[in-house]
Amino acid sequence: MNSPAAKDAPASFYEAHKKIYPREIGGRFQRLRNLAAWALLGLYYLLPWISWDGRQSVLFDLPARKFYVFGLVFWPQDFFYLSWLLIILGLSLFFFTALAGRLWCGFACPQTVWTDVFVAIERRIEGDRNRRIKLDRGPWTGDKILRKASKHLAWALLALWTGFTFVGFFTPIQELAGKVLAFSTGPWETFWVLFYSFATWGNAGFMREQVCKYMCPYARFQSAMFDRDTLIIAYDTGRGEPRGARSRSADHRSRGLGDCVDCKACVQVCPTGIDIREGLQYECIACAACIDACDAVMDKMSYPQGLVRYTSQKALEGGGTHVVRPRMVVYGSLLALLVAGFLVSISLRTPIGLDVMRDRNALYRRLPDGSIENVYLLRILNKDTAAHRFVLTVSGLPGMEIDTGLAEHVVGPGEVYSVAARVHAPAAASGGSHEIRLEVASPDSPGLKASRDARFLGP
After folding, report:
1. Is the alpha carbon torsion for 391, 392, 395, 397 positive or negative?
2. CA distance linking residue 356 with residue 204, whole number of Å
3. How many CA atoms lie within 13 A of 352 on its CB side?
4. What value does the CA radius of gyration of the chain take, rounded to a whole number of Å?
5. pTM listed for this prediction
6. CB-based contacts of 130: which residues, under 8 Å, 6+ apart?
């Protein structure tokens, strides 16, 4: 038997998707978004084509385990730099979200940037908002087929170029271009070009706001980083309500109306289709399109701007906004320290690595002359792009010497050079366990050196 609650249950847990047709809008925030899009897309598409010291400026060469970033070459041993950078990015997300909400989502998120580009292409081919709605609702005609085919062709070309560029960060892009033109790309290169192209075409062309609303976890936990002083995009209910239509010359105050003319321009320009007048919603990506739209309407009505604006909950309730507060001081201080430490560490980084391992076959060996010998396996990693000569030295005990069979060791660019080092110390100075230091240095580059501590064992 069905219960009354079961009879009243909805037929589906999910609302049917309705395509959103965002209206084109101008304004100061739209100009900032356009500037951010041009800068980010310019970096993405142009960086692989820029040469630096005779090679690609940014290249993640996975087979060779080398990561080129302009003048720097990183190796797997430098993985902690990536961890450090990820911590900085994570803390930056906390800092800017606590300061002004979802700035990342509205101005710099790849999903937002590429969606804006795809919508701009759609608008250029199919027309403005009203024409796109009419086109989609109308019957299939020759004009509709031509416009839809042209749009998808433009989308596909941009998506393929995006996928090609993505793979170009891992395979030298000029080499990859030659392979593409000759139809000789490898299976993995072909797969990733097509996969990333399909992901771009699907996410930016079809899923759009659904990625932000249903797939992105940031929308769900952003409120945990907000407080009452966080700057958010909000509608001033006290000033705007009650809303209602009126002529430009009408005295709306005498009629008991607020400044909102209920034109729904803020809804029409929203890329996620929400009504900002209903309060802060997790679907809002803080693109500020509603601010530009509302300000344009306020200008036409000769009303003050700012009915929809960046403000805080505390300011909306009549208080003041405190940008400098304990949370921001803590986030900002930690972020500044991490960034400063990262930059200092990068600037002091030397392109030479040294690993030391003891010979496990014997703790020590007594030689005929009475001295004590310990054997170590040294691995010298030359992270530079040029070969270097290296000399090994040891310190820590009086009379200690090192013998590797060669006076100097030449290590090629990117080479891991292994050498067995026999360290001798007089018997009188070598009893017990002693800490010593092994050092590798380049005679032709005084600043190019590295050292490691080790234990010297004796009877």
Report:
1. negative
2. 51
3. 23
4. 32
5. 0.83
6. none
Long-range pairs of 144-150 with CB within 8 A, sequence gap ≥ 24: 150/125
- Helix/strand/coil for 443: coil
Can you read off the two tokens belonging to residue 58? 């940014």
Count of CB atoms situated within 10 Å of the CB of 367: 11
**Domains of the chain as residue ranges with CATH:** 13-349 (no CATH), 352-457 (2.60.40.10)
Write the single-letter amino acid at 69: V
Residue type, 310: Y
**What size, in residues, is the chain?**
459
Contact indicator for 410, 442 with CB cutoff of 8 Å: no
Which single residue is written with the structure tokens 């002083």? 229
For residue range 373-422, what is the model confidence (pLDDT) as tens digits? Answer: 999 999 998 888 788 999 999 999 888 999 988 878 999 887 889 999 99
The answer to whether residues 287 and 33 touch, using CB atoms and an 8 Å cutoff, is yes
**Residue with structure tokens 């006076």?**
407
Cis upstream peptide for 443 (omega within 30°): no
Angstrom distance (rounded) from CA 186 to CA 189: 5
